[in-house]
Amino acid sequence: MYSAEFEYYRATSVAEAVELMRAHPGAKLLAGGHSLLPQMKLRVSQPAALVDISRAAELSGITLDGEMLRIGATTTHAALAASPVVSEHCAILSEAASLIGDQQVRNRGTIGGSLAHADPAADLPTVIVALGGTLTAASAAGPRDVLAGECFVDLFTTALTEGEVLTRVNVPAYGAGTGGAYAKHRHPASGYAVVGVAAIVTVSDGRCTRARLVVGGAQPNPVSASASEAALEGQPLNEATIAAAAAQVAQALPNPLSDHYASADYRRQLATVLARRALVTAAERAAER
Ligand SMILES: Cc1cc2nc3c(=O)[nH]c(=O)nc-3n(C[C@H](O)[C@H](O)[C@H](O)COP(=O)(O)OP(=O)(O)OC[C@H]3O[C@@H](n4cnc5c(N)ncnc54)[C@H](O)[C@@H]3O)c2cc1C
Question: Ligand 1 pocket, 30 CB below 6 A?
Fold first, then answer.
């Protein structure tokens, strides 16, 4: 299939991207094109104009700013996976990025495109929510920060408004005693997460002081397994406490997605198993820091 006709503009800066989006209502931003172009070829999406941000240098790159990692929106999954700064200060992010699709997909796909697209089967939304990250967006009205936990409102729907350009993703660097792990069950064809679970724990004096457990792929948006998190806090992290917490993950999934590959019950079961695996690995990594 060929896409419908569209105008093409290339932005070389955030300011230019914002201005082009303002001047062309209904335009779409083009990052790596890995989700947008297939949608256009299928005519699910027919934007009158594309604003290509893939060569705006200020939108790409990773910096450590005090205790925060700041990641430009067009930073590719491959760059995240290979970054020594990310593996040193927020290893769950490089782990998740390295599990996306295949090398070609990781070379083109971007963190901003993944978050803005909000595919329920994508890996990075789950991890960024678990990290308590924020998304910085720019528009003609100025910049604003959106909490990742409030950004993913439904299937393929975020709290970003039309014309807003996601410029940066901000996540806290791990502190002492913190470890994280991302465990996923890959769809055999695409590599997308049928279910993916992000676990981040902080341990002090042999007890868990903070636990974050977020499940993606099972519901329309990433969900926090709050009962499991509460069950771990104040406890030593061992086989028994982790198994008990993982057993409560299903409570967070009242209405799982269901399709020809994985039923709702199967997704619930996957979430429980992957939560246990992710927590065990996160606890081991926390003990090493
Ligand atoms: C074969 C294949 C396998 C894949 N496997 C996986 C996988 O295993 N796990 C996974 O998580 N993902 C997977 N993906 C998705 C891929 O990694 C990309 O993250 C995703 O397609 C987004 O693509 P993109 O960055 O090229 O954005 P685009 O396709 O360019 O854009 C996607 C959407 O986001 C909007 N957008 C882009 N950038 C911004 C921005 N800065 N601000 C606001 N809106 C923006 C666009 O307008 C568009 O609506 C796969 C993709 C393919 C094609």
Answer: yes
Beta-carbon neighbour count of residue 7 at 10 Å?
11
Beta-bridged to residue 104, according to DSSP, are none
Ligand 1 near 60 CB (within 6 A):
no
Quote the ligand 1 centre to 160 CA distance (angstroms): 15
Domain ranges of the chain: 7-52, 57-172, 178-288
β-strand pairing of 165-172 with 7-10: unpaired
Distance of CA 108 from the midpoint of ligand 1 (Å): 9
- Tell me if 51 CB under 6 Å of ligand 1: no
CATH code that applies to domain 178-288:
3.30.390.50
**pTM value?**
0.98
| 7-52 is a CATH 3.30.43.10 domain | yes
Return averaged pLDDT per consecutive 10 residues of the chain, 289 residues in all: 95 98 97 97 96 97 97 98 97 98 97 98 98 98 97 97 97 96 96 97 97 98 98 97 98 96 97 98 94
Q: How far apart are CA 76 and CA 60, in angstroms?
A: 8
Does the CB atom of residue 149 touch ligand 1 within 6 A?
no
